[in-house]
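Order emerges. For instance:

***
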Amino acid sequence: QVQLVESGGGLVQAGGSLRLSCAASGSIFGINAMGWYRQAPGKQRDLVASITTGGTTNYAASVRGRFTISRDNAKNTVYLQMNSLKPEDTAVYYCNAAQSYSWRRDYWGQGTQVTVSS
């Protein structure tokens, strides 16, 4: 099993910044991608950003240029730096770790609330 512990959510005014962290532990062998998803009330969970062990990143169009994902492989930790936050960024943010090969297995954190006030 893989355990993911998130931190860094909170309340911020529009235009502000937050940094999310997610530390992975347990049976992390084979995890080759980590990322962040978000889910607003009444909506589906969508990808925000992801990063592979090789450093390849992928961003949702709505956050590109404002959010930056990074990882510290030595600490098995992934970060999401969120700048120029907008009220529409309000959601529960979930850390994801994936074994993504010809098959895929996902692991999820408990979620952290990000609220952006206008």
User: Anything to note?
Assistant: Residues 50 and 56 are 8 Å apart (CA to CA). The chain has no helices and eleven strands.
